[in-house]
Design brief:
Elements: H1 3-13, H2 16-32, H3 35-48, H4 56-72, E1 79-82, E2 85-88, E3 95-98, E4 120-124, H5 132-139, E5 143-148, H6 154-165, E6 170-173, E7 198-203, E8 212-217, E9 220-225, H7 227-230, E10 237-245, E11 248-253, H8 259-272, E12 286-288
Parallel strand pairs: 3-11, 4-7, 4-10, 5-6, 5-7
Antiparallel strand pairs: 1-2, 8-9, 9-12, 10-11
Helix pairs in contact: 1-2, 1-6, 2-4
């Protein structure tokens, strides 16, 4: 078993507080012995935030470790304690904000994501509790599918598959599903199931696989996978974000749009809660414009 897969297994098996501490120490140690990653964090901070907050890489690692521990325990007990505080983690209590008002989308009539009879293409980033997004929408009645590539670490890939399967979330893998059909309802293997309220999800950062496009927003340019936007349905692609606020999961559903819109949504979230985003592993995808 690989070190990453072993840590994921231990985090799920240990009591909550030791699990959180283990995950935090793992991320801190990893960055402490990776000057290249710390340099990337500083560079991306300067691009996205316009400054480098004091001791930011340590605070970033501490928060990401906490989130990794919570997400690793997603399929376990519904509640647990972390750092001595009660941390409700019930998927069925998540608050979902569907921001489809006229002020958000120039007066267009947009079908809310809560309409389970309408298939949707969604995207997110390694921000907050990203692994909880599929489970939240699966609980709300969607048939959730993730478009994911194969993990180089096969043991970790199998562990992640088990984690998602525990929430009845399925995945697509391989390049053959990365192109949307002309109908825009989702990848080809599921054309017959779109009436069930299919929700197809992509992650847009920490990858350089496949055809890429460049998004621009808020003084930042970023390379993103082009697949979700290649032949997306007419309503566009919806950015989603999940955070833990006041001990409760909070999911923000942004209006649909193109890749520039998705980057603008990411920047709004990161500038609001910078420690929640994984600032490293971007393969030089960010630049100031």
């Amino acid at each position: 078993m690989s070190p990453a897969a072993l840590v994921l297994t231990l985090v799920r098996a240990l009591p909550a507080s030791p699990a959180v501490l283990l995950a935090r120490l793992l991320v801190l140690t990893s960055l402490a012995f990776s000057p290249g990653s710390r340099d990337e964090i500083r560079r991306n901070c300067r691009i996205v935030l316009g400054r480098i907050p004091r001791a930011f890489w340590m605070r970033n690692a501490w928060r990401i470790g906490f989130h990794l521990a919570l997400m690793a325990r997603l399929g376990g007990r519904p509640t647990h304690r972390a750092d001595g505080r009660a941390m409700p983690f019930l998927i069925d209590k998540a608050k979902v904000s569907d921001d489809n008002s006229e002020s958000w989308y120039a007066g267009a009539q947009v079908t809310p994501l809560s309409a389970r009879n309408v298939p949707s293409i969604t995207v997110s980033f390694h921000f907050g509790l990203w692994e909880c997004l599929p489970a939240v929408f699966r609980h709300r009645g969607h048939d959730v599918r993730l478009v994911v590539g194969k993990q180089r670490d096969r043991a970790l890939g199998r562990a992640l598959d088990r984690l998602r399967a525990s929430q009845e979330v399925r995945r697509f893998g391989g390049a053959r599903v990365m192109v949307m059909p002309a109908s825009g309802c989702g990848p080809e293997p599921v054309r017959g199931e779109v009436r069930r309220g299919l929700l197809v999800g992509f992650m847009l950062d920490n990858t350089s696989r496949g055809q890429m496009t460049t998004a621009r927003a808020g003084g930042v340019a970023m390379r993103l996978p082009a697949a979700p936007y290649a032949r997306a349905r007419k309503e566009g692609v919806r950015p989603l974000f999940c955070t833990l606020e006041a001990g409760r999961l909070r999911v923000r559903v942004y209006p649909p749009g193109d890749e520039n819109h998705a980057l603008g949504c990411l920047l709004a979230e990161v500038r609001r809660r910078p420690e929640d985003w994984v600032f490293w592993g971007k393969a030089g995808a960010l630049a100031a414009v």
